[in-house]
């Protein structure tokens, strides 16, 4: 036999039990020594000791030390950049020193020069330059240059070269900042160089500095003197980025991060959200929103990968799992779910963590992130979760090799919502983004809705404001239950014909006529007469109440906006007005209501049931019993039972259902066999190896089509096999490994307490996931029911438990079914085969077959003369090729399943649309609106009401709009909660935490503020006035409430000096035993005063304290 190699690696060592030479021909190999880096620290200065001391602290206290700077000069430029930008770099502390030591300054410039050579991290480089090149730092450089004239330094030339490299890149990157900061420095350099001792060696450098100064002076535009300009804060200096135009179109950028972005740590160009002022055009606006949002979910992953590669610890909101194994693959409700085994840290309780929530994005790599693939958490079984087993859905299935061991980085960002919103932004343009005059160009004057302007003279009947069950009669007979509403009374003609077109609030009836306060009346007027409405509602002022009144009025007067005709609408694109004819527009679409949370949506929709039953809730995560029957899947189920769905939808669903089942059966069969092979349970069958063509045809014929295969691989007649050390009885007698320490036993009481904590924690996890998981479709495709198709057997001979085999054999002997001699022969043969099989399986598990992956065999060689060690190696090669071919065969079927499920989702969307179009109101959470973008866009709602709008990222709001939206009502309070981006820096420096709600207020768009609070005792509201809400007033209904029995005051703060417990959970949460005991005793005291437990609520912002209180 002759095997030639394409590789230069050494053949793995394996046991050889046959005498004679092997027949492997190998090339010469190089050394296999592993390079090691030894860092010596002979400096011993105090800076480095402090460096080591603070490396694990949350906040850096001391400047970066010399040895660290030296280390950075040897790192790749991209890693230098990320080191400089680290929160623990010590660079800000260095810059803040009154005088930077000369040696440190020279070294720091060298580090910056190295960083400036990086071409893959332009954005990060800009941030570094913006942070460092302040007037103070430039003055320190000027002072240092002057000191060079009397210095004896020998590294002046090197320093000037590094500085020149740095200043050139600064000039290219931030031209405005360079023009402002560098002329004085460059002039100083040119004055100093001629006076240096080695000035003759610096002539070329002098020329280059002169050229750089000339370029800066030539490019300077007339303006105020530099001395008259005020130094801008860091956030303002980012304005230099706002004028940069990206080289690529955001519509062409893949939503998933590229390898360069994740693995090479490339930070893409991003620009600030313009929170005050107008954008240049629609494209500029959408580009900024897209890139900011995309960076918000990519940056935590990038940081996590940097942590793994550089060995850093403590990166916030990123979790790292090592030695991750893919264990199983299943098809769960039509989705490919891979179950992975994660190794949790010691003393880690996953039930108290927000790790592994549904939709969290994870990045897997088996080669230190030289390559990787992404996945999202698909869900987890509570029992499996305790063992660290979690299901994930791969975004790229082609890169998975389940036989490898992976490192995984998990981010808490909810990828599904990002994906759908980003996709929606890519499909928008100046013709599909509504209300651009305000959203993009920040116009302050707001016109009426276009449907009002299209009519000659619009009047509304506002009698419905008087009572929550007033509504015009509904004559439609459809899928919705009959409403209990009543027509408004005829005794209020003063409210029956209220002008809407060009009507000022002064001509409306008084507040008392509506039963509203003055601020509510004014807000109602704006909501009905303006196309963009911003209503701020401090706590308890009736935001939801007013939102319901607005919806009630719009539905009662739907004739104003539900006409069916061809209309003309004004659409503003690039600041140029033009008329666009809108043909075939479904103008009878429902009102779209979007809320931030499931609870808020349920509350809003429950209020609507008083005046309409024609509502649909998309999403099955409702906890309201009244809303349960209004979930869209409930209506779909009724339609299917009554068989009144449109035939084309029914046929399409049936077709895709059958195709999915057929594809699933094929894929399940292949997955099942692949998993059997991966487990390496015995000698692979000849039929399976031959089926995938991994055995050369010449060997197939020599083995007589498999008849000699088993005896060739398990030669039990050879004498040497009796000398094998492998004993199958020892393997099977090993105790089963269990999770945790078997020596640790807990009492029944402890177990009960742990179970209670576990169920409490799971309840909190489900609450968090309920805001993410939109649908649990009971009537969805019954995937998971397909049978596994018949297939070629996987193993010729499997490893068998010898105890069970002997027991069965002796039972036959005792029953007289076999003779004693036959029993002895059978048992002897069994142990011979099991010994050889054990050696073979040990060989396959410990051998690296990559060294022979490209080997070829001499067809003329007699395989029966091959040494057994080489037979095992050849078998390893066949198994390696088999696994590769099986995985390759599976991938087209995976792609087919994904294609079919996408088709199934389109059919599901059609079902949803069929139901939703019959409704008056369709409600979703922001997450639901993102996930059902196709449905929302196809509904074409003309009126969109968004509650809690101040808490929602602007991109999420924009993605919920469509070209036909003519009326946008935003209700919220930007002084309570802002949007919460995943990346703090994007919120602080780039304005990502500024909602559309707040941005409109910042730009002077008229907004209404509700001024009378109906909830808080005056003692509580006084804490907010005037510090937060200067104009907030108490409604008379909150006056005169009973004093709280058993305490001196109704509101009080308790101060104490008892320390918190050390952080023990994964959320860096907090808990305080003293506070918990105090609260429990206070609650008991209030119960003793006669209050019912249901009247007492304990609120805590920390999950750690929650569990402590429950415990």
TrEMBL record:
Biased composition (Basic residues): 10-22
Domain annotation DNA2/NAM7 helicase helicase: ranges: 516-731, 880-979
Superkingdom in the source lineage: Eukaryota
Region Disordered: start-end pairs: 1-51
Record-annotated DNA2/NAM7 helicase-like C-terminal domain positions: 992-1111
Listed GO MF terms: helicase activity
CDD domains: SF1_C_Upf1 (cd18808)
Domain ZNFX1: 316-412
Coiled coil, from the record: none
Gene3D superfamilies attached to this UniProt entry: P-loop containing nucleotide triphosphate hydrolases
GO cellular component: nuclear RNA-directed RNA polymerase complex
Single GO biological process annotation from the record: regulatory ncRNA-mediated heterochromatin formation
InterPro entries assigned: DNA2/NAM7-like, DNA2/NAM7-like_C, DNA2/NAM7_AAA_11, P-loop_NTPase, SF1_C_Upf1, ZNFX1
TM annotation in the entry: none
Protein name: NFX1-type zinc finger-containing protein 1-like
Organism per entry: Hyalella azteca (Amphipod)
Gene designation: LOC108674147
């Amino acid at each position: 036999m002759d095997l030639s190699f394409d590789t230069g690696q050494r053949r793995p060592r394996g046991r050889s039990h046959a005498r004679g030479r092997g027949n492997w021909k190998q090339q010469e190999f190089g050394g296999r020594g592993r390079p090691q880096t030894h860092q010596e620290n002979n400096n011993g200065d105090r800076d480095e000791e402090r460096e080591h001391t603070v490396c694990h602290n949350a906040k850096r206290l001391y400047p970066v030390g010399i040895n660290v700077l030296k280390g950075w000069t040897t790192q790749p430029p991209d890693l230098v950049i990320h080191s400089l930008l680290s929160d623990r770099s010590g660079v800000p502390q260095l810059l803040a020193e009154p005088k930077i030591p000369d040696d440190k300054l020279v070294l720091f410039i060298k580090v910056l020069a190295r960083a400036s050579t990086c071409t893959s991290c332009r954005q990060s480089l800009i941030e570094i330059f913006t942070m460092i090149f302040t007037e103070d730092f430039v003055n320190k450089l000027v002072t240092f240059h002057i000191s060079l004239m009397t210095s004896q330094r020998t590294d002046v030339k090197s320093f000037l070269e590094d500085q020149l490299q740095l200043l050139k890149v600064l000039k290219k990157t931030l031209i405005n900042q360079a023009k402002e900061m560098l002329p004085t420095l460059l002039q100083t350099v040119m004055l100093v160089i001629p006076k240096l001792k080695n000035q003759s060696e610096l002539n070329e450098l002098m020329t280059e500095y002169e050229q750089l100064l000339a370029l800066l002076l030539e490019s300077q535009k007339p303006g105020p003197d530099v001395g008259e300009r005020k130094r801008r804060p860091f956030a303002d200096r980012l304005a230099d980025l706002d004028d940069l135009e990206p080289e690529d179109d955001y519509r062409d950028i893949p939503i998933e991060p590229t390898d360069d972005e994740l693995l090479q740590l490339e930070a893409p160009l991003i620009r600030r959200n313009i929170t005050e002022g107008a954008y240049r055009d629609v494209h500029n606006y959408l580009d900024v929103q897209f890139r900011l949002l995309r960076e918000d979910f990519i940056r935590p992953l990038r940081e996590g990968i940097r942590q793994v590669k550089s060995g850093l610890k403590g990166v916030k909101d990123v979790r790292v799992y090592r030695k991750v194994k893919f264990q199983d693959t299943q098809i769960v409700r039509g989705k490919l779910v891979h179950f992975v085994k994660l190794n949790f840290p010691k003393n880690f309780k996953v039930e108290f963590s927000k790790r592994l929530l549904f939709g969290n994005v994870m990045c897997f790599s088996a080669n230190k992130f030289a390559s990787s693939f992404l996945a999202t958490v698909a869900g987890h079984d509570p029992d499996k979760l305790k063992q660290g087993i979690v299901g994930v859905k791969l975004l790229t299935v082609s890169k998975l090799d389940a036989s490898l061991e992976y490192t995984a980085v998990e981010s808490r960002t909810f990828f599904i919502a990002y994906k759908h919103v980003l996709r929606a932004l890519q499909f928008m343009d100046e013709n599909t983004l509504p209300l651009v005059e305000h959203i993009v160009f920040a116009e302050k004057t707001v016109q009426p809705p276009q449907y009002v302007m299209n009519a000659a003279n619009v009047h509304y009947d506002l009698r419905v404001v008087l009572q929550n069950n007033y509504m015009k009669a509904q004559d439609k007979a459809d899928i919705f239950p009959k409403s209990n509403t009543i027509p408004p009374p005829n005794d209020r003609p003063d409210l029956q014909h209220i002008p809407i077109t060009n009507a000022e609030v002064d001509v409306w009836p008084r507040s008392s006529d509506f039963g509203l306060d003055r601020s509510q009346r004014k807000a109602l007027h704006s909501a009905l007469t303006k196309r963009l409405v911003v209503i701020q509602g401090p706590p308890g002022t009736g935001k939801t109440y007013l939102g319901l009144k607005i919806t009630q009025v719009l539905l009662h007067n739907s004739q104003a906006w539900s006409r069916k005709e061809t209309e003309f609408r004004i659409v503003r694109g690039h600041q140029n007005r033009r008329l666009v004819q809108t043909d075939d527009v479904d103008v009878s679409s429902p009102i779209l209501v979007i809320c931030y949370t499931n609870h808020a949506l349920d509350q809003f929709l429950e209020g609507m049931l008083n005046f309409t039953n024609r509502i649909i809730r998309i999403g099955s995560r409702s906890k309201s019993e009244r809303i349960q029957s209004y979930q869209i899947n409930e209506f779909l189920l009724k339609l299917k039972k009554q068989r009144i769905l449109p035939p084309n939808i029914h046929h399409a669903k049936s077709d895709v259902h059958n195709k999915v089942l057929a594809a699933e059966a094929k894929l399940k069969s292949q997955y099942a066999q692949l998993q059997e092979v991966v487990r390496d349970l015995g000698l692979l069958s000849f039929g399976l190896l031959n089926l995938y063509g991994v055995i050369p045809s010449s060997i197939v014929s020599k083995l007589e089509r498999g008849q000699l295969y088993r005896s060739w691989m398990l030669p039990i007649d050879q004498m040497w096999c009796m000398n094998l050390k492998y004993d199958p009885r020892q393997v099977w007698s090993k105790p089963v490994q269990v999770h945790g320490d078997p020596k640790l036993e807990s009492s029944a009481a402890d177990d009960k307490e742990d179970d209670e904590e576990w169920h409490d924690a799971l309840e909190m996890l489900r609450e968090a996931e309920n805001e993410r998981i939109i649908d649990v479709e009971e009537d969805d495709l019954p995937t998971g029911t397909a049978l596994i198709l018949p297939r070629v057997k996987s193993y010729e001979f499997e490893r068998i438990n010898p105890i069970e085999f002997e027991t069965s054999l002796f039972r036959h002997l005792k029953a007289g079914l076999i003779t004693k001699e036959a029993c002895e022969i059978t048992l002897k043969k069994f142990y011979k085969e099991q010994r050889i099989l054990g050696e073979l399986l040990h060989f396959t598990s410990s051998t690296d077959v990559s060294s022979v992956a490209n080997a070829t065999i001499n067809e003329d060689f007699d395989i029966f003369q091959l040494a057994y060690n080489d037979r095992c190696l050849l078998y390893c090669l066949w198994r390696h090729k088999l696994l590769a071919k099986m995985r390759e065969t599976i991938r087209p079927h995976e792609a087919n399943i994904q294609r079919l499920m996408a088709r199934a989702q389109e059919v599901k969307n059609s079902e949803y649309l069929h139901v939703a179009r019959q409704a008056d109101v369709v409600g979703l959470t922001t997450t639901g609106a993102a996930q059902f973008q196709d449905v929302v866009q196809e509904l074409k709602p003309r009126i969109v009401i968004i509650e809690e709008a101040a808490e929602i990222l602007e991109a999420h709001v924009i993605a919920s709009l469509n070209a036909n939206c003519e009326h946008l009502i935003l209700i919220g309070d930007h002084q309570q909660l802002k949007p919460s981006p995943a990346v703090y820096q994007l919120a602080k420096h780039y304005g990502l935490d500024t909602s559309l709600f707040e941005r409109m207020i910042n730009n002077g768009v008229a907004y209404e503020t509700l001024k009378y609070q109906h909830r808080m005792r005056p003692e509580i509201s006084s804490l907010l006035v005037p510090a937060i809400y200067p104009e907030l007033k108490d409604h008379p209904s909150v006056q005169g409430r009973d004093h709280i029995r058993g305490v001196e005051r109704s509101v009080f703060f308790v101060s104490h000096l008892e320390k918190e417990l050390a952080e023990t959970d994964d959320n860096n949460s907090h808990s305080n035993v003293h506070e918990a005991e105090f609260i429990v005793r206070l609650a008991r005291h209030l119960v003793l005063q006669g209050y019912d437990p249901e009247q007492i609520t304990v609120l805590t912002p920390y999950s750690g304290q929650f569990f402590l209180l429950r415990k």
